[in-house]
Amino acid sequence: MPARIDIVEGDITSLPVDAIVNAANEALAPGGGVCGAIHRKAGPELAAACASSAAAPPARPRCAGFRLPARHVIHAVGPVWGGGERGEGKLLADCYRNALNLAAETGLKSIAFPAISTGIYGFPADRAAFIAARTVRETLRQRPGIERVVFCCFGRESYELHEAALAATAPQD
Description:
O-acetyl-ADP-ribose deacetylase activity, Macro_dom
């Protein structure tokens, strides 16, 4: 049975999934946006756990969810947009792919993603949504153990961009 991909508009910290992805900074420290919200809700234990693994590569460290409904937090350090000429698209795709691979390798069945890099990192939201949808669809073909992927969007515009991206990347029968 293929994985189900859902889109929701809301707060990623409230989703009852095995793992949520934190759009993290390189230090894995509490920050603003999604990262700050995750750290606030998870509690100070998340920051302490992150401090011990801050030198890990993007989408590699995995921490407990602590006070979150999600059991785990996977940290993905997305690219800062620099005009698209510095491999930002590949780096963003790697964030999604690595997080899904890590989830599958550790037996997790469900995972939720925010719109990585589209906030303060300035990645164009329409491009980011398309890269996310395409990468998730491609990776799920090799990771049948993942049953559910959620794109958790902060705002209606992000929701609609993800909806359009999923439609554009849907398999053609």
